[in-house]
Amino acid sequence: MLHYRSLLHSVAAARYWEMGDNDQSFRYSNYLSRFHWRHMDLMDILSGFQGRGRASLQDIATLLGLPGKLGMHGSEVWGAYLQGGLARIRDYCETDVLNTYLIYLRFQLIRGILNAAEHAHELARVRKLLAESSAAHLKEFAAAWPEP
Question: How far apart are the C-alpha atoms of 19 and 26, rounded to whole Å?
């Protein structure tokens, strides 16, 4: 979708499309290749790039003790949009991003990119952001995410 929308709106993104012709560091690690670390699809990586190994964001979040989906499911977005529910969609997307980020942090921990103290520090930063927010959906997320 992003590719087609960039075509529609003439969004120039030379580095995104770089495949190593102008910068050799992008030859084997670029944004379009599936098997690299410059950009990653966490679901693809965790499933071993196998469709049968895929787990949903909800399933992984639940496995890790995270809140998961709150108040809406992806299949409901179009209907919410048709009813003018942009704020509800935004809230849903923000909590999906939080779940994804927290899963990503755990992934970086198991990869050895973060150590236990760094991981705990990042989790504390997220909890602080949530505690300082007055947004109802973020308060709900915080309440559904128990302290370890």
Answer: 5
Q: How many Å apart are CA 106 and CA 119, to the nearest integer?
A: 7
For the chain, the three-class secondary structure string (H helix, E strand, C coil) is CHHHHHHHHCCCCHHHHCCCCCCHHHCCCCCCCCCCCCCCCHHHHHCCCCHHHCCCHHHHHHHCCCCCCCCCCHHHHHHHHHCCCHHHHHHHHHHHHHHHHHHHHHHHHHHCCCCHHHHHHHHHHHHHHHHHCCCHHHHHHHHHCCCC
pLDDT at 105: 98
Entry pTM = 0.84
